[in-house]
Design goal:
This protein is α/β, with parallel strands linked by helices. The chain has twelve helices and eight strands. The protein is elongated and about 65 Å long. The structure holds guanosine-5'-diphosphate and magnesium ion. The site of magnesium ion has 5 residues, from helix 6.
C-alpha cells in the first residue's frame, strides 16, 4: 500500500465523522451567513478540534470569505481545507544530526510508547541509521521484554537491566554502548506509570541530567506520545508533561482506531508543538511522518 493510501485507510473513521458533518452543514445552508459559521464552529468542537482551534478556524474562515468575496457555500470547503493545512504545518523532521543523538520517548502508560519506538527504530534503520534502544521503562518486566521483541523485529541493539533497576542507569549504559559501538541514535523508552507525578518528574529529570552529562552537545528529541482515541484528554495529559519536560515533538498514535483524529488540530493550536509522526496501526510499518497536507487531503477526499 502506498503512503497516502495507508494514511487514508488509517484515517477512515476520522474522515467519516468529520467530513460528513461538514458536508451536511454546507448542504443545509444555501448562503454564507453567520449561522453557517456558528454551525461549523459547533461541528468542529464536537469533532475534538477543541474550542480554541475551532474558534481560530472560524475566525480565519470569516476573513477569507470576506476578502475573497466567496458566495458559494461549496467554496467554503476549499477555504476551510487551506486553513487546516496552515494550522497543522510545522517542522516534522527529527533533530538527530550529528550522531550520536538521543531520542527520549515519554507519555502515560498504554499510549503506545514501546510500540512506537519499535516502529521508529525500524524506520531509522531503513534510512541507514545505526540505532540502539535503551529499556528505561524498568517498572514492569513485561515492558522490557516487549522492547526486546521490538529490537529483534527491527534488527537493532538493545541495552536492558533488571526490572526495578534505576532507569537513569539504563540510559547511562545505553549511551556508553552507543559510544563504544559507534551508534548514530539512542532511543530510550520510559515508564509512564510511576507512583505519582513527582516520581515521574524526578525520574525524567535524572535521565535528562545523565544525557546532558554524557552527551553535552548531542542533538536531542523528547517525543511525547499521545493516544488519539483519548481525544481532548490527550491535551490535558500533554499539558501535564509540558509543565516539567522540554517536549520537542508529539507522536499521535492509534489514529486507525478512532474518529477523534481531528484532535491533532487542538494539539497544534493549544500546545504549539509539532506533531512529528502518526501511528496508524500496530504493525512495524504503521508509523508515518506527519504531513499536514496529506492528513487534510486524506480527511477531505471524496
Ligand atoms: P506504552 O505503555 O506507552 O509503551 O504502550 P504500548 O507500546 O505497550 O502500546 C499499548 C497498546 O497500544 C498495544 O497493544 C499496542 O499494540 C497498541 N498501539 C500502539 N500504537 C498503536 C497504533 O498506532 N494503532 C493501534 N491500533 N494500536 C496501537
Ligand atoms: Mg511501554
Amino acid at each position: 500500500m502506498g503512503f497516502f493510501n495507508k494514511i487514508k485507510e488509517g484515517l477512515k473513521k476520522t474522515k467519516s465523522n468529520f467530513i460528513n458533518k461538514i458536508n451536511s452543514a454546507i448542504k443545509i445552508f444555501s448562503k454564507i451567513d453567520e449561522e453557517l459559521f456558528e454551525e461549523l464552529e459547533e461541528l468542529l468542537i464536537t469533532s475534538d478540534v477543541g474550542a480554541l482551534a475551532s474558534q481560530r478556524i472560524c475566525d480565519d474562515l470569516r476573513k477569507i470569505v470576506k476578502k475573497e468575496s466567496i458566495k458559494d457555500p461549496n467554496s467554503v470547503k476549499q477555504a476551510l481545507k487551506d486553513i487546516l493545512i496552515e494550522i497543522l504545518e510545522g517542522d516534522c523532521n527529527l533533530n538527530i544530526e550529528p550522531p550520536p543523538s538521543v531520542i527520549l520517548v515519554i507519555g502515560v502508560n498504554g499510549v503506545g510508547k514501546t510500540t512506537t519506538i519499535g516502529k521508529l527504530a525500524a524506520k531509522l534503520k531503513n534510512d541507514g541509521k545505526n540505532v540502539i534502544l535503551g529499556a528505561a521503562d524498568t517498572f514492569r518486566a513485561a515492558a522490557i521484554d516487549q522492547l526486546e521483541i521490538w529490537a529483534e523485529r527491527s534488527g537493532v541493539d538493545i541495552v536492558k537491566h533488571q526490572q526495578g533497576s534505576d532507569p537513569a542507569a539504563v540510559v547511562f549504559d545505553t549511551i556508553c554502548a552507543a559510544k563504544s559501538r559507534d551508534k548514530d541514535i539512542v532511543i530510550c523508552d520510559t515508564a509512564g506509570r510511576l507512583h505519582n507525578k513527582t516520581n515521574l518528574m524526578n525520574e525524567l529529570g535524572k535521565i535528562e541530567r545523565v544525557i546532558k552529562r554524557e552527551l553535552p552537545n548531542a542533538s536531542k528529541e523528547v517525543l511525547l506520545v499521545l493516544d488519539a482515541t483519548t481525544g481532548q484528554n490527550a491535551i490535558n495529559q500533554a499539558k501535564g508533561f509540558l509543565s516539567f519536560a522540554e517536549v520537542t515533538g508529539i507522536i499521535l498514535t492509534k489514529l486507525d482506531g478512532t474518529a477523534k483524529g481531528a484532535v491533532v488540530l487542538a494539539i497544534k493550536e493549544e500546545l504549539g508543538i509539532p506533531v512529528k509522526f502518526i501511528g496508524l496501526g500496530e504493525q512495524i510499518d504503521d508509523l508515518q511522518p506527519f504531513s499536514a497536507k496529506q492528513f487534510v487531503d486524506a480527511i477531505f477526499e471524496e
